[in-house]
Amino acid sequence: TYATPMLNPPESAILALGRVRALPRYCPDTGALVRRHVLGVSFGADHRVVDGAAVAAFSNAFKALLEEPSLLLMHLR
After folding, report:
1. What are the pLDDT digits (tens) for 10-66?
2. pTM to 2 decimals?
3. Bridge partners for 37 per DSSP
4. Were 13 and a residue from 9, 33, 42, 45 both cysteine, which residue would form a disulfide, CB within 3.0 to 4.6 Å?
5. Catalytic residue among 29, 37, 47, 75
């Protein structure tokens, strides 16, 4: 389901994407299990070069763009 991406010099960070899978997830609104599409994502970074806070900020921004693709249009202007 998940992978650990390996850095190859001179890389300082890497992103690995799994495949999109339909999995059961709990819906707090209805209390039922619902089918949701889930994408496994892993990050690797050389912490001598990249601060962990920067990786976390990138992770949050990446998640936001996946959840709301229309946000990409704001970055094209």
Report:
1. 999 999 999 999 999 999 999 999 999 998 899 899 999 999 899 999 999 999 998
2. 0.70
3. 22
4. 45
5. 47
